[in-house]
Amino acid sequence: MASWDEVERAAPEFAGRVRAVLDRHKHKTMATLRRDGSPRISGAEVHFVGADAFTGGMPGAVKGQDLRRDPRVAFHSASEDADEQDPASWPGDAKFAGRAVLLTEEADKAAFWAGYGGPRPPDVDSSDVFRIEFTEVVLVTIDPPDMVIESWHEGVGYRRRTRS
Question: 72 - beta bridge partners?
Fold first, then answer.
């Protein structure tokens, strides 16, 4: 599985556009797996610090319990409606999937919080912080008359496809 830095090095222009879509809104949708294997959708933030991407949760959050049990995770950017008069102006949808690795070492947690740049929650010592290891990153945009699907997959690399 890859760090965000590896995705950026493999496809820098693509990774920059994905980040731009992800950074348009603070909140993303996160999918985890419940104990019975059914999906759970939660609101979540993603923070890019150094070469990695991170997510977290309040102490005892069910999404953190899901990830401790099964680290598979997927994220989707906030969606915006396309302008029907100018569909090419739509910024697109970004999504990625991979594995969430719980930070357990104090040095790793301290490095995350040092680079975070936002306010530290009052319960920071008991909060979960997970580093994301990527298996796929996808960006969907419109280039009239086509929908453009760009992706990076672990072991495959960057790919661009269109659908009319």
Answer: 99
